[in-house]
Amino acid sequence: MNDQSHNNESALVLFSGGQDSATCLAWALSRFARVETIGFDYGQRHGIELECRDDITTGLKRIRPEWQQRLGEQHTLDIPTLAEISDTALTRDVAIEMGEGGLPNTFVPGRNLLFLTFAAALAYRRGIRHIVGGMCETDFSGYPDCRDDTIKALNTALNLGMARNFELHTPLMWLDKAATWRLAEDLGGKTLVDLIVEKSHTCYLGERGARHDWGFGCGECPACQLRAKGWGAYTASHAEAKR
After folding, report:
1. Which residues are registered as beta bridge partners of 211?
2. Rounded mean pLDDT, 195-206
3. Of 35, 53, 171, 195, which has the most beta carbons under 10 Å away?
């Protein structure tokens, strides 16, 4: 898909305030005439990611003039019921560990299914056909609702259930974290990479005190480890290219 593929259409981006969703937002801004965002307050153990969104959108508007013109409304939905029926390390103050079935206890059952369904319902009302999410099954924790087959199946269900022709875009699906950093650089140069490092948040524990080369976080949780590993590979490829 090139930058002009949907230059007369709108998109709705699932925007949490993390690295992946910030990259997806830039991706959408480079392709669509108007871009709105949606975030979810579902009773997660910290709301730092959601608090980061304003700084990220402000920064994005400064990177390219057309992005400022294209960035539209930012929506936040409260769905506390998800936390009420979940018993996970993202909705409870418990240690992160492996759970049953080989999945970490950071897996929130049904989360992405609900997020995309609510996003589609909002997109229906807003007259938006394209929905963009940061789901990925290359560098991830094994979450089944991040897999390509799941997204494709849900896309079909949403189209049938709402009698619409939604298109779910997952630009990071086959990228590892290093490639995600490279995509950010391709979209907005070093300025965008620096913005994501400084302003986005990925740490499961909500740690915002410790500053690493790749950004803020505890440095120990699975999300921090994936982000750090990707940053290391990304910067190593830069160093290699300069030799």
Report:
1. 216
2. 92
3. 35
Single-letter residue type at 28: A
Helix (H) / strand (E) element for 73: namely strand 71-78
The total number of residues shown for the chain amounts to 243
State mean pLDDT over 19-39: 97
Under 8 Å between Cβ of 14 and 89: no
Residue 10: beta bridge partners?
34
Domain for residue 103, yes or no?
Answer: yes
Mean predicted confidence (pLDDT) in 97-107: 56
How many domains are contained in the chain?
1
Using alpha carbons, list the distances in angstroms from residue 50 to 14, 39, 119, 185, 210. 11, 7, 16, 23, 19
| Average pLDDT score over residue span 213-240 | 91
| Full residue range of the structural domain in which residue 88 is found | 6-202
198 token code pair: 């400084």
pTM for this entry? 0.89
Q: Is residue 181 part of a domain?
A: yes
Asked if residue 207 belongs to a domain, the reply is no
**Through-space distance between the first and last CA atoms of the chain, rounded to whole angstroms:** 32
